[in-house]
Design a protein that fits this description.
With about 220 residues, the protein is of the alpha/beta class. Helices cover about 35% and strands about 25% of the residues. The chain folds into two domains: about 120 residues, Rossmann fold; about 100 residues, Arc Repressor Mutant, subunit A (Orthogonal Bundle). A five-stranded parallel β-sheet has the order 2-1-3-4-5, with helices on both faces. A five-stranded antiparallel β-sheet has the order 6-7-8-9-10. Helix 6 packs across helix 7 and helix 6 crosses helix 8. The protein starts with a strand and ends with a strand.
Length: about 220
């Protein structure tokens, strides 16, 4: 994992900068000036795990840098953090598009935690006991579902349906197949049962299940990320 830090010239030499803090924490860091090109071949082949825009007092410059970051194809899906002073924090807005912020002067442990948090929120993985899709995490062993670490309450059958579809992403299942595989072959309910539970999942989990697709005339599938 490496981190791209964007800011004014002299980032590497500035005492207390993000570069110094991240080096102290053992992170691999590369730097870019606010006006450097951000679509180089190196970034295409090896994008960073996160981008930190060190804006300091210049919140407007930070917003301008974010626009350039998002315009660079290799960085469009990379989480972005802005570093600002306390006085500049009030000039940020929740709609600016940053994944998080860090106050300057930095506290190294806090900075690292915030970077790992936004990197985690954008990542996707599946393993034997946990499935991660963006902010949604399904803990199969604990029978829990969380969004950005906050628990969401699902019924037993809602959890079973969500888990099954996520474990079989990319495959389409008919309503009858879902009834048999999720509810069991001895279940005598109608296919409407599946529709009701899909609707409840969409209501409870919102945009986190945008990949849950209705395939007309067939059934449902959880699209690949």
């Amino acid at each position: 994992m490496w981190i791209l830090v964007i800011g004014r010239e002299g980032l590497e030499d500035r005492e207390g900068s993000a570069v110094a803090c991240l080096h102290e924490l053992g992170c691999e860091v590369q730097t870019a000036n606010l006006w450097d090109r951000l679509d180089t071949e190196e970034l295409v082949s090896n994008p960073p795990a996160a981008v930190l825009i060190e804006a300091g007092e210049e919140a407007d410059a930070g917003r301008a840098a974010l626009v350039r970051v998002r315009a660079a194809e290799p960085l469009q899906e990379v989480p972005v953090l802005i570093g600002v002073t306390l006085s500049a924090l009030s000039r940020l807005d929740a709609g600016d598009g940053f994944d998080d912020f860090a106050l300057m002067p930095y506290v190294p442990a806090e900075l690292y935690m915030r970077i790992r948090r936004i990197e985690w929120s954008r990542s996707e993985f599946a393993q034997q006991e946990r499935i991660k899709m963006g902010p949604l995490c399904i803990d199969l062993a604990a029978h829990e579902v969380t969004i950005d670490g906050r628990p969401r309450q699902l019924t037993h059958q809602e959890f079973a349906l969500l888990s099954f579809l996520c474990q079989n992403r990319g495959r389409v299942f008919s309503r009858r197949q879902l009834l048999e595989r999720v509810w069991g072959v001895d279940y005598y309910g109608s296919s409407r049962t599946v529709d009701i539970h899909v609707r409840r999942l969409r209501m409870k989990l919102g945009h986190c299940v945008n990949n849950l697709e209705t395939v007309r005339g067939v059934g449902y599938k959880m699209k690949e990320p």
